[in-house]
Amino acid sequence: MPLHKLEHFDPNYRETFGGDDVKALDLYTEGGDKVGSVADVLVDDDGHFRYLVIDTSVDFFGKKILLPIGLSRINYAARRVYVDGLSRQQVEGLVEYNEGAIVDHDYEENVRSVFRSPNSGITYDRNTYNYQTEPALYGLNEQAHQTFKLYEERLIASKNRIKTGEVTVGKHIETETARVTVPIQKERVLIERVVPTEAGKVVDPSELKFQEGEVARIEVYEETPEIRKEAFIREEVRVKKVVEQETVEAQDTIRREELDVDTAGNLHVEEHGITTHEAI
């Protein structure tokens, strides 16, 4: 993973740290002895501090060295960076760092070998090694170190189901006057008196029969209407809900932080894609 100078990684790093400038801090041992000052910081692609570039004082050798960030404790309030147990022998054994130095795998391993405990049990393999392998050298915490994070806004679409109304379907009774026509028949008796066709003909006395009380009976009928009500199914009403699909488009302005990397001098700088962020 390539390393970047602090200012090249984020030209506005002072604003990121609320105005604090780590490059303005002096380096002290935990016992209070001044070792030097912070000349720069090297960070990885994820913005994690990896090394402090220390300009050692005259009491040592006046050269710049790389100090793994896990060995330091930054105290902005005291304007100091503390290092636990940095010895003259370690400073003597470190490769001098200069502006044109290419900090590759071998260079870093030379630095680590000076600070690594003999009993660490770590065997270096450049193909599998990562900073998490040695938390004693690179372990970060929010109180003592800083990490750059690039933020991006995005639009989140969600749906809320709300009641927009209600439909009630019922029934009521209406009345009206209906009329129906029924043809009926009535019988009546018609009595006609007519002149017989043989009027004036003398009737044979032997055929003449006078009979008192002879009655002719005719039954007379008439139809009467019978009206009744009958209920029947006029229509059926079916009530159901239909779900209609539509797409609602919304837009807003979102922001995204992009990385600015500026280089100076003959540096070997590589940039890789996004990797899993290290927990701090």
In round numbers, the mean pLDDT is 80
End-to-end separation in angstroms reads 18 Å
Count of DSSP-assigned helices: 5
Written as H for each helix and E for each strand, in order along the chain, the element string is EHHEEEEEEHHH
Structural class: alpha+beta
Beta-strand share of residues: 5-15%
Low-confidence stretches: 275-280
Radius of gyration, Cα only, in angstroms?
57 Å
Tell me which CATH architecture of the domain at 4-138 applies here. Answer: Alpha-Beta Complex
CATH class of the domain at 4-138: Alpha Beta
Total number of beta strands: 7
CATH topology of the domain at 4-138: Photosynthetic Reaction Center, Chain H, domain 2
Instruction: Characterize the biggest β-sheet.
Output: 7 strands, mixed
CATH superfamily of the domain at 4-138: Photosynthetic Reaction Center, subunit H, domain 2
Shape: rod-shaped
Q: Fraction of residues in helices?
A: 10-25%
Quick summary:
With 280 residues, this protein is of the alpha+beta class. It contains 5 helices and 7 strands; from the N terminus they run E-H-H-E-E-E-E-E-E-H-H-H. It has helices at residues 6-9, 13-16, 88-93, 105-115, 135-138; strands spanning 4-5, 26-29, 34-43, 49-56, 64-68, 72-75, 80-83.
Structure notes:
The chain is of the alpha+beta class and 280 residues long. It has a domain at 4-138: Photosynthetic Reaction Center, subunit H, domain 2 (Photosynthetic Reaction Center, Chain H, domain 2). 10% of the residues lie in helices and 13% in strands. The chain is built from 5 helices and 7 strands, in the order E-H-H-E-E-E-E-E-E-H-H-H. Strands 1, 2, 3, 4, 5, 6 and 7 form a 7-stranded mixed sheet that branches. The protein is rod-shaped. It starts with a strand and ends in a 142-residue tail after the last helix. Residues 275-280 have low confidence and may be disordered.
